[in-house]
Fold this sequence. Notes:
Order of helices and strands: HHHHHHHH
Strand content: under 5%
Region (Disordered): 1-136
Structural class: mainly alpha
Shape: elongated
InterPro entries: Stress-induced_KGG_rpt, Stress/Virulence-Domain
Distance between the termini: 118 Å
Protein name: Stress-induced protein
Number of helices: 8
Oligomer: single chain
Helix content: over 70%
Amino acid sequence: MATSKESGGNKSSTSSGNAQKSGSGSSQGPAKRGFAAMDQHQQREIASKGGQAAHQKGTAHEFDSEEARRAGQKGGEAVSRNREHMADIGRKGGESRQSAARNAAAAAAAAGGDGPGAAAKGSRQGGKEKDRDKTE
């Protein structure tokens, strides 16, 4: 004699369970639970507290200086592997410094400062030679 499983006697409960999952859920999307089911006000209230609960329980992770240093080093290594990206960064840095010097020289020329110190103002180490000449 066949058991209820073999004869399909339990099919009605299985099919109704599947119908509940796929039939009603597919038209509205997956059922929202937990944080997603809360209204926006409740979500904001919880989110504004941040990690306070974890800190109060003592389970929050806190970086010590060595761990933070290692994390920063890893990030720097990952970025510096891309040589093209690093070259682009260096190029932009040089451009900004050069354009600042050009703008300063143009402003000095426009103001009528064509004296011997006008060119030195735009360079970073222009004043060193002047000071050395005075001491000798």
